[in-house]
Amino acid sequence: MAETLDSSLVGTCPAHAQFYRWLSGNIRSTPYPDACRVLEAMFPGVTVQQLFLPVRAKRSELLKPPRVPNDSSRQPVASSPTTLLLSSLAGVEPIDESFIASIHAQMRELLALDAQVGGDETSGQALRLFRTVHRRIGVSPCPKRLRRDLYAAAGELAEIAGWLFYDTNQQDSMRRMNHEALYYLRWAGCRGLELLTLQNMSMQAEYLNRPSEALAIVQSVLEADWLSPRMESLFLARGAHALAQQQQHADAVRSLQKACALYLDGPRDDDPA
User: Fold this and answer.
1) What is the 3-state secondary structure (H, E, C) of 106-162?
2) pTM of the predicted model, to two decimals?
3) 10-residue stretch averages of pLDDT, the chain, 273 residues long
């Protein structure tokens, strides 16, 4: 379409982030003039202003066709692809309890499948599922009472995907999923799963021979949180490994001895599952 308008417009498409902001309505003004030209050429008879009507507008406003001359030879705008597009953007189904429950059900299926066939198969499925959930969160309204549960489910899904990528030695993908997990888990205030994700991140840093990064993660947790003996022992043991990688053997031994002593105290009822 851009080529038919002006050859200089070829290859000037919006970045992915900008495109998703268009779809979600998270923009403050209309796009740049060149983008407006292409959009209006793609959807004849509809202005850019109509395409970017805010979602909070009345549904009747979103579906209202532009005024056209009284010409019986023209097809009604209401049946055009443009109106169908506006209808689909306006009528995004809200997130409800069943959607969140379906995320948890699919996570259970992923873990069961991973136990049978391993991460080579399940990591890709987990990523596709996360992308679907991530997209839905970005465009669908969610009642305030469900947001914490929604973000917690999305964060847990990202943590699982990260672990599966670690299992298949796809370290870059694991790192991205870990950061996605932290993003949603902190929104949800789900500290237990956040600590699990931080454990995974420190483990990965050690595996990649990045002991300073692993130790920084461990220290950030130990300094910021009051942890139960069992939880503190887990992070102290991880820190001991990182210290050993740095050839700080005396400090590593002391950290491991303290971890062993705390571990013997056993878990508490309020420890994360």
Assistant:
1) HHHHHHHHHHHHCHHHHHHHHHHHHHHHHHHHHHCCCCHHHHHHHHHHHHHHHHHHH
2) 0.65
3) 65 60 59 72 70 53 47 45 41 85 94 88 93 93 94 97 94 96 95 93 96 96 86 95 96 96 90 78
